[in-house]
Amino acid sequence: MKKIIATILVIMMILPCVSLSVGAEEDVEVHHGFEYVGALTGHWDSLLCDGEQVGDGVQIQSYMVQNGFEIEAEASVLTVRGWAMCDAEVNSFGYQINNNPPVFKDEFSTDTEPGIYEAGAMVGADYGGRFIVDIDVSEVKGRSSISVLVNTADGIYSVSLVTGFDLEFDFVQKGTESEPTPTPEAVAASEPVIVRFNSYEEVEDFFLFSNYNSHVVSIDYDEDKNCAVFDVSAGLDPNVKLPFGQIAYDDSYRLGSIDASSYKALLLVGSFDYDTILLSDEDIIGSFYYATDESKEYLESKNIIYTYERTDDLQFVVLDFSKSRYWTGNVDDCRFDFFAKTDNDCTYNFYLLGFFADANEANAFAESYKASGDSILPTPEPTPTPTNTPEATEPAPTDGEAAQPTENPAANATEKPASNEGSKKKGCGGFVAAIPALALAVSAAVILRKKKR
Q1: Are 270 and 284 in contact (CB under 8 A)?
Q2: How much of the chain is helix, strand and coil, in % rounded to 5?
Q3: pTM for this one?
Q4: Between the CA of residue 256 and those of 139, 190, 245, 259, 319, what are the distances in Å?
Q5: 231-235 long-range CB contacts below 8 Å, 24 or more apart?
Q6: Residue ranges in 85-181 assigned as alpha helix (H)
Q7: What's the rounded mean pLDDT across residues 144-148?
Q8: What does the DSSP 8-state code read for residue 432?
Q9: Which of 30, 81, 191, 253 is exposed most, by the fewest CB atoms within 10 A?
C-alpha cells in the first residue's frame, strides 16, 4: 500500500509539469502579406491613439507614407480599422508587436457590408471582412514594429493592402525611446561609389544577377540614350532587383561590399515619359525596399517612398537612410520599385546610381550632374603601358666556337586585338542571352508571378 501511495504521489507531482510543458506556447510563424501566393487584399481605413484619429483628416495611408510608416505618440491603445479579404478561410484577425506571440481575438472582427465581399470576389477572395483591432501598447517602451494580422487556413500573414503595402508600421512610445547611441569618432569621408550605366558591358555586368524582377520584360543598353532601359508591362509595382549583395561576391566586378555605416544616402538618376505612366492626373510615386546582411527582409518600415517631378527630363531621387535603425552592416540586394504602378506599357531609362556619405553630398552631386553631366565623373586611371623586355643578348662565342644564328624574334611581336564593335547592342532583350539558362528560367517564372498583391 505504501508503494502504491508513493507511486500516486509521484504521478501527481509529475502531471503538473507535463501539463505545463504541453501547454507552453510555441513559436508562431508569421509571414508578410506580399509573400502570400494566393489572393490576399485589404484596406486601411484609420488609426486611432487612445480614441483620437491620427492624420488630422488625411487618409491614413497617405499620412503614413509621408511619415515613413512611423508614428510617435503617448498612448495605451492603438486602434486599427480596415478590412481584408482572402481566398483561404479566415479564422480571425489580430496583431503582433515586434517578434512577440501574435494576439488574436474574435471581437476584432466586426460587421461587414456587402461592398467589401464584392471587392474581394473581384480578385477571387471570398473570406474575411471588416476588422477593428485594439492593440495594447500600455507596456510598450521605446520603438516597436507593429503588424495587423490575418489568421488564415494557409497560415498567418500581415494584411496586404490594395495600395501594394503591408499593414505594418513603427510605433514610438513618446518619451520612452532608449538613449541614442554615442556618436562614433569621426572617420575619413568615404569616396562616393558610382555606377554609370553608359555601356553595354556595364549594364550586363550589373544586372546579370537581377533575375527576380516584376513587370520588367527586358533590361538593355541603349546607345542613343546612353543608359540602361527597362521595358515595362502595365501593372502594380514594376520593380527590379539591385543585386548589391550578390555583386559583392563577384571578384570580377569592381563594386565590392557597400558598408551601410559609411554610406547613408543613395542617388538614383532616371527618366521616363511622364504622361504615359498613369491615366489619371495623380502624382507618380516610386519606392525603394532596402536590405542588409543584418536585416534581409523587405518590410514597410524599410521602404522609402518618393514622388517624381512632373517632367520628362532627368529625375534625381535621393534616398536618406540616416534615420533608419535597420541600415546596418553591408548593403544586400534591394528592390527598386521605380513606379508604384503604371497603367500602360512603358520604358524607364536608368542612367546612374551612387552611394554617398550623406544626403547633403548626394544632393550636391545631383546639382553638379544637372549642370555638367558625365564630365564630373571620376576619370578612370589609364592602364600603364608595359615596358618592353629587352631582348636577350647572345654571349660572344669563345675561341674555336662558331656563332649560332639568332632565334626567330616573331614571338616578341604583339598582334592587333580583334575589333570589339560587335559588343555594342541596342534594342529589346540585348543582353538576356548572356544570362545562364537556369537564371532565365527562374527569372521568367518570377516575372509571371507578382510577389506583391
Answers
A1: no
A2: 20, 30, 45
A3: 0.56
A4: 43, 14, 9, 10, 20
A5: 231/345, 231/347, 231/428, 232/339, 232/342, 232/345, 232/346, 232/347, 232/348, 233/345, 234/342, 234/343, 234/344, 234/345, 234/346, 235/341, 235/342, 235/450
A6: 114-121
A7: 94
A8: G
A9: 191
